[in-house]
Amino acid sequence: MTTPGAREVLAAAEQLGSELDALSRRIHAHPEVGFAEVRAAAWLAEHLAGHGYAVEREAGGVTTAFRASLGSDAAGPTVAILAEYDALPGIGHGCGHNLIAAAAAGAGAILAAVLGPRPAGRVQVIGTPAEEGGGGKVALLDAGVFRGVDAALMVHPFSRTRMYEPLLGRVKLTVEFVGKAAHAAAYPDEGLNALDAMLLHFQGIAAMRQQLRPEARVHGIITRGGDAPNIIPEHTAALFYVRSIDREYLQEVARRFEACAEGAARATGTRARISPEAFLYEPMRANRTLSERFRRHLVAVGIGEDPAAPRPALASSDVGNVSQALPTIHPWIGILPPGQPDLALHTPAFRDAAITDFALARMRAAACALALTALDVLGDPTCLRAARAELAGTGGPPSP
Amino acid sequence: MSDLEALKSRVAETADRLADELWGLALRIHANPELAFKEEKAAGWLTAFLEARGCRVERGVGGLPTAFRAEVPGTGPGATVAIMAEYDALPQIGHACGHNVIATAGAGAGASLAAVALAGATRLPLPGRVVVIGTPAEEGGAGKVRLMERGVFREVDVAMMIHPRCGTQLWRPTLGLTKVKVEYFGKAAHASSWPWRGVNALNAVIGLFNALDAMRQQIRSDARVHGIITVGGQQANIIPEYTAAEFYLRSLDKTYLQELRRRFEAAAEGAATATGCRVQATFDPTIHDPLKPNFTMLELFGRNLDRIGFAVDPDDAEAGYGSTDAGNVSQALPTIHPYIRISPDGVPGHSRDFAEAAASPLARAGMLAAAKALAMTALDLLADPSAVAAAKAEFARA
Q: What is the CATH number that goes with domain B176-288?
């Protein structure tokens, strides 16, 4: 059997008509935050089931996750296309996950159409909830949902079309200080001020920033700053994100963060308690072998790469964890018409841009490029071999 | 009139006769300010004066070139009453602490007593002795601590001095004081091209100041912590690898001073931990003790001020307290350190205005009254062994 090409894929996409646009619009109009994407997950599952996929709901025990499978791993490699569909509190789809979802669902439908019911390998569309802070993909990785997956592909909307933009590793830390309460006017000298400790910790972080690598980030909020002004605060808490492009440096910055907290505790006579979140977001390791394939296919469907933005966006995503485990791509698809200035993610403006006709057309093109890249993974053994060698550090194209 | 009262009157008259000479000496010291341990002229003038008035003078006592001891002996065994004189000045602002007045009040008391002794025999007509001890370097050098360590106060039973102020108050506390130098050691790096290779020692010292500022809310209201940065970095384009600061910690309470020291060390170490620097805190081995009052002796001194019609003022609660090495003497033996007015109300010590006041007519009046009251109180103590016993009993109780 010959591997289907761009012509077949474009024809299959044409057959889908307005189905993908409607799916994308529906999700955009009904934003659901992380782990509460009940309707979006259901709509996507129904769509894929309608195109011949065997759909497993609540994959990995995560209520709003799913895994739609076509074919068998006995017949060849497994390629996974990742869908995200959670929204942001207050802003809605300010990160454009409605487009990610529709592109993945579209790629799945296209692949079903061009491969038929018995492909030489397996296609999965994995619904990954709660990218925005919930680490849905980390939960699915831990639950074994990615076991047997040879390559993972997804796209993300952006102001520009770019194959590689850094996604920083990120660890989420709760820091608490425990002191001793005392009446702040009558017996202040009996108190140990946990708010002093917190302020010193922030000052310590602020001072440290000068000595951090430019792409490292440390930022936080105070979630508990004391109970009443006339009580020397005995318990304070803050939530921090520590980020870096480099896994080792992330640990180094986390270590220095801890030293800041311990120093603040020592200086104030309080006790520091640091609780890292159970999971961390790994930095993105975009697979260049697969990214270059995707780039070529994207050009074939009419979209070229844009020049880099003056400065990188430096966000984090749970796809980073997937990318450290298996060959993974996370290319960025420009959804702004030519000439329009860049928009920041997580803004109402980007939310509005994520549902224009232009954006929907880009989403459909991205679905085609995803499908074509998936066909490479399934049908071209040299492609997967090179992608794996690159991840293992023994081959692959040079760094971009 | 009793013999004692007659003696007091003669001492007061002697002091009045010496007044011009004493004031001249005070103005000369004022016009020639000398810093701690370098008070050569002042010590020379004071010892010459006391010697000329019949005191037995020993210079350079306790191994300090600018210290001295001048004795006026009594008739036989008895108490040793010390009158302490200070005469060091401050950097830049001269005699802004009025030590020129302390010097001539103390020397005036000694000289007046010596003159009385000479008038009859070569000794005071009372048992025991009076010694004027010239104590250098009160301003930061803790001269009295050195003299105590070297035995200069060994035979002294009770000690007295006066200190100039913007009001006459018999008792005001002084704070215990401990000094510390803090150094941070980081790692230098180009501040623009490789800042992440640096470990910033200036961050550490700023962190320490921030921690101390925060700590102040939780320390007792009498406590003080204050400092300066003495090395703040080498150049703006180098992540500073070495910084240093100096601090004073003070409290009314010796025990609380230890607690402050413990918390200061924690703050200094915390700043090091937070920044990845190494810290070294070096405490000055000399601690200034807080002043321990002796109301038995203050009562005598107050009565003598009253006798010569010199008014005691109500305390001005607004002002805080300083520290003195007389505090260490007061923790070792019964000591008084009353304040004598030399300026109008509200003129702060260590100010240029106070330096001016230390050469004013008010200072002359205060010096003369203080010389008389010191000498008379010494006579009270020598004449009545039970008064010395009472002062010692109070010292032992507190």
A: 3.30.70.360
Contacts of A207 in chain B (CB under 8 A): 200, 203, 206-207, 274-275
Q: Which residue intervals of chain B bear CATH 3.30.70.360?
A: 176-288
Could you tell me where the DSSP H helices lie in chain A? 6-16, 19-29, 38-50, 97-115, 136-142, 194-208, 247-268, 288-300, 319-325, 348-353, 357-379, 381-392
Q: Give the domain ranges of chain A.
A: 6-167+284-392, 169-280
A6-167+284-392 classified as CATH 3.40.50.280: no
- Span B240-268, pLDDT tens digits: 999 999 999 999 999 999 999 999 999 99
Of A201, A212, A263, the CB nearest to B196: A212
For domain B3-174+291-397, give the CATH superfamily.
Answer: Zn peptidases (3.40.630.10)
A169-280 CATH choice from 2.40.50.140, 3.40.640.10, 3.40.30.10, 3.30.70.360:
3.30.70.360
At A74, is the secondary structure helix, strand, or coil? coil
Interface contact flag, B273 A188, Cβ < 8 Å: no
Q: Give the tens place of pLDDT for each residue, B163-177.
A: 999 999 999 999 999
Please list every residue in chain A whose beta carbon sits closer than 8 Å to the beta carbon of residue B260: none
Write down the pTM of the prediction. Answer: 0.77
Write out the DSSP string of A314-361: -B--THHHHHHHS-EE--EEE-SPTTPPP--SSSHHHHHHTTSHHHHH
- Rounded CA separation A357/B339 (Å): 89
CA B388, CA B106: separation in Å to the nearest integer?
Answer: 20
pLDDT of residue A199: 95
Chain B residues near residue A191 by CB distance under 8 angstroms: 218
